[in-house]
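Troubleshooting: if your tokenizer reports a length mismatch, compare against these two reference records.
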Amino acid sequence: MPTPFQKRVYAALALVPRGRVTTYKQLAEYLGCRSCRAVGQALRRNPYAPEVPCHRVIASDLTPGGFMGRRDDTALRRKLELLAAEGVRFSAGRLAEPRRLHRFKRNSR
């Protein structure tokens, strides 16, 4: 059973449209949370995937970050496949098109 914080993370992530990504930091800031890691831990426990698309969250340096609590090649390959299916591409390990970053609107909370 997700915690109230986890539910808030999943609801906010549901605002990120297909073909766009956000960062752990942007998601944390939108939620008024000071911890990107707490957001990452909530996503690691996401029982609603793929409806709640945790693959759409990347690191602030525009690298893929982790996936399902892992950073190994298999997990990252799966994350990159899911993003590629939505048109999100990475080049040299970084987001190829920064315009794909979703910006949360303050009043959309």
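Reference record two:
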Amino acid sequence: MTNTLSNVLGSPFRFLIKALLEIQSYTFLASRAIANLFTRPIYGREVILQMDRIGVGSLTIVLLTGFFTGAVLAIQSEGALRRYGAVSMTGQLVALTLIRELGPVLSALMLAGRIGSGIASELGSMVVSEQISAMRSLGTDPIRRLVTPRMIAMIMTLPLLTILCDAMGMLGGWVIAYYKLLISSNQFWSDAMNALQFSDMVGTLMKPIVFGFIISMTGCYVGMRTHGGTEGVGRSTTQAVVSSSILVIAADFFLNNLLIHLAPLMNP
């Protein structure tokens, strides 16, 4: 009875200690990856290869996600707006929803599933096959060689993909508004542009930078801690996707609150 009670009381404490150790290790990895930006060598070729893999490789899925998201927004908004005779405001609704929220978040989630899992499986395979240990024995820092280039590539590429996602989403919304809702092109695009403010532009570029850092660092962190052979690689891949997605959504909550407070200062 005493042992059972001690186990029940000790479980939350052990969970808390484990969580703090994970946060410490994650922070240490992230700080080293950032510090590598200010010292040499910087593996520029690896950065370019990762940008090609992330940007060009993810272009199709991001464009399709943006287009159909904008189209669905326009379709779903018709029922709500028609009740108030405001179907003509579809352009404003699509623009604000996409650029403020759905564009950055959906682009990040797509890359968390495609790139975050790929980073975790790639680095995990290198860990279990002892390539990371061999790299250290040859005097190469694996964080500088593997983690920092992926972080740079993700931070530089995700904002560009988000802009394309927003543009395709607006195009999808226009297709539905023009051909189904019979809204003129001039009205749709003028309403959409007039609804946007400077803070919306800042948010749609600031969020992907934070999300890109989270996705890349989470994938690298989980991959570098892989153990248990090929089965461990599978676990790391799943963990990277789940953790990245949760962290992206949590970060979006805090960034939205920050942008709401800063909006009066940024908008003229």
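Descriptive notes for reference record two:
- Residues 44-82 form the longest helix (39 residues).
- Helices lie at 2-35, 44-82, 90-128, 131-137, 142-179, 185-195, 198-224, 229-266.
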